[in-house]
Amino acid sequence: MKKIKVCFVLGTLDVGGTEKQLLLLCKYIDREKFHPFVISLRGGRMKNDFTKENIPVFVIGKKYRFDLIALFKLILILNRIKPDILHTFMFTSNTWGRIAGIINGVPVIVASERSTDLWKKKYHFFVDRVLGFFTDKIICNSYSVMERYRSVLGNISRKLVVIRNGIEFQTFETDKSGSKRKNEKIVFTASRLSPEKGIRFLIESARIVLRQKENVKFLIAGEGPLMTELKYLADRYGIEKQFIFLGYKNDIQNFIEKSDVVVLPSLWEGLPNLVLEAMAMRKPVVATNVGGTSEVVKDGITGFLVNPGDIQQMAEKIILLLSDEKLAEEIGKKGYEFVKGNFDVCLMVYGYRSLYETLLTRRK
Question: Which of 283, 305, 268, 317 is nearest to 142 (CA)?
Fold first, then answer.
């Protein structure tokens, strides 16, 4: 039986939520039926992760905002692969990928929106609407993202569907005999160090936490343009000894396991992997009420929701969970049960497979 060629196009292969979810999809989709390919406009650390799963990876090497040479390369690669399905992710690759797919006459074109994208201007949505006419489906990773795009895409919004993120639960079954020092509490977060991730608000919130609890360390995993600025902010507040900037880490689950509370301080999101991963390890979560986070964090039940940028509210919830171990354990347990039943990777992969097959059947 001829395999269905699915070509995925994304912006980078840096470590991020979209890249991790795509890796899971490529890893678990039925290889007897589907042949996945990955095209990235730029390179990144995760290229090796895809190649280890025997996924062909092409890196375009896009250099400029309007890089016609990169577009030409993308068109040539698609012409060589001749995919049955083209699936693109987020604005830049949604734009260039769909243009290349249209030129090549790819039978099925699918786009993905992964965040509420508060940064977008009117002209971005104009591009989305125009290319939407040539798109079979637009996949959102949360209902909040779908509602956001429904409000701006007009008639194209009928093409929106939701397939939520998945978790590879066996990855999070780890030894619970932590090595942290007695009486030390750990608050953990992981993200790209960029403005929308709200790490500066976690640092400001930490000042309040540390006035009441001195034996707390804040661990931040990730890289990004704000690394130096955030370190300076912690130093300026006199709490630099309580903050450990870990840089890039490929073993996030080990740090989640050692933590007492996991915090997501983002200003906007789609459906954050960090929250799902923390819950999969039975850790209590404090998260900002943005994007699809509230679809996972049920306030006071599976975690605590706070308003974005509200450092006082964030500090109060962190202090509460650090002070009440029984409450923290109960919330961690309920969070685990919720994501176990609703966010298993098999559910996600089944959603994509069913959609791909349905769209191809319609084309025939």
Answer: 268
